[in-house]
Amino acid sequence: NRNDSIEKFGEEMTEIIKEAFECDFANFFICDEKVLIPVAHIGYPPDLQNISIKRIEIDESQPWEVVKACLSKKERYVENLQEYEPLSFNRDLYRKYNLRELYTIPLITKNELHGVIQVATSSKNVLPNEKRRILSSISEEIAAGIAKIKAEEEMKRVLEEERRFKMDTSHYFFNPITIAKGYLHLAMEEAPDECKKKIESAYHAITRVEKVVKNVTQRGEIRE
């Protein structure tokens, strides 16, 4: 995929799915431990969006099809939402928008669940078995795309932490080292000859420490 964030990827996927499969609504959730997080959606009017597009705890007590698909790691198909008892508390809204079919697909690759794609249709559009089969067949590719972006985001996070560590370490060590070297340089100029050798040895020791710190912060190597 060409996207550099899961949000952009989700937006692109929902747009493509809505157009290609001629469904009225599409949404995309990401699994984050025990929570489903909405990433992208398309076609939802505000009142339907308010009840459908939200963070949902992944718990067996939840009536939502996205949660059931996550827990079972299997596709779920509702032929007529207006008569579907587990979601009957939303029946008025389903009737308002003439919603009929609801198809929910877990996004799994290498046995790891990454999220859920869900599509819904009204009575003017149908979602026959052939369309559902095709959508199911591409779900692993979508999951692989999510996994790739997650890996890239994790790599960026690690690199940023390393950069900040090096910057903080550099600041923490180099300021006192610079001050100490300055004091020793002045002391060497003012000290009697018999003391200069000891001061010079201390100066060289600090310089060696400085080189080690530079190698750690700049190259990640513990050496002079």
Describe the structure.
The chain is α+β, with helices and mostly antiparallel strands and 224 residues long. It folds into two domains: 6-156, GAF domain (Beta-Lactamase, 2-Layer Sandwich); 159-219. It is 56% helix and 19% strand. The protein is built from six helices and six strands, in the order H-E-E-H-E-H-E-H-E-E-H-H. It has helices at 6-21, 46-52, 65-72, 91-96, 129-190, 193-219; strands at residues 25-32, 35-42, 56-57, 76-78, 99-109, 112-122. It has a six-stranded antiparallel β-sheet. The longest helix is centred in the C-terminal third of the chain and has 62 residues, at 129-190. The relative contact order is 0.11. The mean pLDDT is 87.
Helix content: 55-70%
Q: At the fourth CATH level, what is the homologous superfamily of the largest domain?
A: GAF domain
Biggest sheet descriptor: 6 strands, antiparallel
Query: SSE order, as H and E?
Result: HEEHEHEHEEHH
Name the quaternary structure. single chain
- The portion of residues forming beta strands comes to 15-25%
**What structural class do the secondary elements suggest?**
alpha+beta
Mean pLDDT: 87
Uncertain segments are none
Radius of gyration: 30 Å
Fold-level CATH name of the largest domain: Beta-Lactamase
Per CATH, the architecture of the largest domain is 2-Layer Sandwich
How many domain modules?
2
Measured between the Cα atoms of the first and last residue, the distance is 43 Å
What is the count of DSSP helices, taking H or I runs of 4+ residues? 6
Count of individual beta strands: 6
- Widest sheet: strand ordering: 3-2-1-6-5-4
CATH class category of the largest domain: Alpha Beta
Shape: rod-shaped
